[in-house]
Amino acid sequence: MKALQYVTVGQPPEVREVPTPEPGPGEVRLRITAAGACHSDSFVMSLSEDQYSAFGYPLPMTLGHEGVGVVDALGEGAKGIELGEAVAVYGPQGCGRCHACAQGVENYCPHAASRGIHPPGLGTDGAMAEYMIVSDPRLLIPLGDLDPVESVALTDAGLTPYHSIVGSLDLLVPGSTAVVIGVGGLGHMAIQLLRTLTSATVIALDISESKLDFAREVGAHHAFLSDDNAAQRIAEAVGPEPVTAVFDFVTNEPVLKIALSLSGPRTDLVLIGAGSVDTAVGLLGQPFGSRVRAPYWGSRPELMEVLELARTGQISVDTEHFTLDQAPEAYRKLHAGELRGRAVIVP
User: Fold this and answer.
1) Which of 118, 193, 230, 329 is 20 to 30 Å from 262 by CA-CA measure?
2) Is the whole model's pTM more than 0.85, yes or no?
3) How crowded is residue 77: how many other Cβ atoms within 10 Å of its Cβ?
4) What structural domains and CATH numbers belong to the chain?
5) Which residue numbers in the chain have pLDDT < 70?
6) What's the CA gap between 294 and 129, in Å, rounded?
7) Contact 177/243 with Cβ under 8 angstroms?
8) Is the Cβ–Cβ distance between 205 and 230 less than 8 Å?
9) Is 151 within 8 Å of 144 (Cβ atoms)?
């Protein structure tokens, strides 16, 4: 079968012929119908050899942690799922047995790393292939009648901002203000989710005028350039009070300074981007009562909820489609910032 694999550190991914995998005991094989390309993949492939070695991901590795497909084969003992069923893959799998996993919050399993359990495409072979092995049926969420190509990105680009926003719902009451920084694959979903889940005034920040137009298209009340004047423009639009929550899908030092300039007592500062910062936080480093969170992906129940929002037409993903042979170009465009929403690979 064909698969898009990261083969050599620092080099672009390659489309390669690899053996079609067979499911072992308890495992499920999917015939992949769509896979999503994500900045997390681009981040991993941008690391130096020393940095990459810290992750311990084996090479070659089939990419793709956003995946949907049809159940194609069952390993011995695999139960609770039927051949031919359309499913979405829940990526941040845990041990399946601890307290967090019992609640469906496998994204915060405390045992996954020590037991060598990694998400697809981020440590184990992922969805950018004709077929994929999933270790347990519990990790497969019914897709129902959702279009696989248009919904695959919901497994991360929808789930991650949903999980991030749910953590701030206690503050996002009528009269509140939410700022989304970075209107890309996740950011454009965050805007829709904020409009769907809350009554907050939603403000988007980005460095690109075309992305600001995009933000307005998907529901932002206001959209401004992410620069030194952002705080002033927001104050002119909604008043001088500190914003209620900032959802940062970039997370670097200049962006964090903007976020902090918007913050006040009880502001939620939610750092979702994969960048790094040096600014100190704590009692003397941020406004009293404010919160800093670094959410990771989302839970299995939350993925079900995200899929239901899409099924009822309340959210949708802006997608650009590529064949498996075109997948390296999808990542080039992702890295260069040439994508409007999410790149989807269709084997």
Assistant:
1) 193
2) yes
3) 9
4) 2-156+298-346 (3.90.180.10), 161-293 (3.40.50.720)
5) 276-277, 279-286, 288
6) 31
7) yes
8) yes
9) no
